[in-house]
Design brief:
The structure is a single chain. By secondary structure, the protein is an all-alpha fold. The chain folds into two domains: 101 residues; 146 residues, no CATH class. The radius of gyration is 30 Å and the shape is globular. The termini are far apart.
Length: 267
């Protein structure tokens, strides 16, 4: 009898250890599975972001080819001059900024135009108002003060600091002045603030925006620096308010004032 009891206890302890071992394996397996799921989600998220970037860049390149084709053909057949081709190409590049964003949202994200307008901060209950207008004017005044300061430094030190805007616009047609003052700011703000700021941040979007002004070949890169400062202020305003109007108003005022001064100088 005693021997039988000892055997039962031994069998019981073995089965208990086996059950406990199985239980531990199951329990220890749960975190591993969860970690695996989390890792898969991270990989899936990164791959979807990569696809989105490739789609966006693909749309941008395709649109630029389509938009540039007519003026290029007209130039090759001698119908328009090189000067006309230059300014038309500049305008089509600007148009591709906003059109790329719209096409990306419509064809890839399957969004309607109302949703797109809300997404970039052009439509909504609080995106436009007196405070937004004042903020836009404030950004404009800050850049204007910086521009005046640069002019004073240039005068005191007798060092010529040119943005070269007047040289670039010397042979521009009247329609290009209107385009640069009103339409170009909208195109640029939709892309650099409305689209890029929420996705890559204020600083990165400001850097890309500034790099677009390298072609001005301004003294000490003053135009690039000014564009970067504007990008920071405009990006911060958009991030804080969710509205595109402050940066858009500031951009229009800056371009319009610069073009007006340039036009007066050229006269």
């Amino acid at each position: 009898m005693a021997e039988r009891k000892r055997r039962k206890k031994a069998v019981g302890s073995k089965s208990g250890k086996t059950a406990a071992g199985k239980s531990n394996k199951v329990v220890s397996g749960i975190p591993n599975k969860a970690a695996g799921i989390g890792s898969n989600r991270a990989v899936s998220s990164n791959s979807s972001k990569a696809v989105a970037v490739l789609v966006f860049l693909g749309i941008f390149v395709l649109l630029n080819i389509i938009l540039a084709l007519p003026s290029t053909v007209l130039y090759e057949y001698g119908i328009i001059s090189y000067n006309a081709l230059y300014f038309t190409s500049d305008a089509t590049l600007s148009m591709s900024f906003s059109l790329t964003v719209i096409c990306y949202f419509v064809f890839y994200r399957k969004m309607g135009f109302k949703q797109i307008a809300e997404s970039v901060g052009l439509k909504g209950s609080k995106v436009f108002g007196f405070n937004r207008v004042l903020l836009g004017i404030l950004i404009f005044l800050i850049l204007l003060v910086l521009e005046i300061t640069v002019g004073i430094i240039s005068y005191i030190t007798n060092v010529q600091i040119n943005s070269n805007v007047d040289i670039l616009l010397a042979s521009a047609p009247i329609w290009f002045y209107v385009f640069t003052a009103v339409i170009a700011p909208l195109n640029e703000e939709i892309l650099f603030r409305g689209f890029l700021v929420p996705r890559i941040g204020i600083i990165a979007s400001a850097v890309i925006f500034a790099l677009g002004h390298v072609s001005y070949n301004s003294t000490f890169g003053i135009e690039v620096i000014a564009a970067f400062i504007f990008g920071l202020l405009a990006g911060y305003a958009y991030k804080r308010t969710g509205s595109l109007y402050p940066s858009l108003i500031a951009h229009i005022l800056l371009n319009a004032s610069t073009l007006l001064l340039t036009f007066m100088v050229l006269l």
